[in-house]
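sanity check both lines:
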Amino acid sequence: MSGEFGSRNPKMEEGDFYWSEEGYRVFTEQYHLKRGYCCKSGCRHCPYGFDKNTGEVRKTPKDK
């Protein structure tokens, strides 16, 4: 199931992340949509609209 939409750890591809100036791996919206769910960590590019203050997901992602 590796690399499929909705798999727990999808295969990494170009465009899935970039390195921040601080040296952190930053996952892109592309990666989050491929993973298929919100991890509720308050990710910078979360397509699910998670709000760290309320703990709620505010929207559903766009169609893939």
User: Anything to note?
Assistant: The chain has a mean pLDDT of 84. The chain has one domain: 1-64. The helical segments are 29-35.
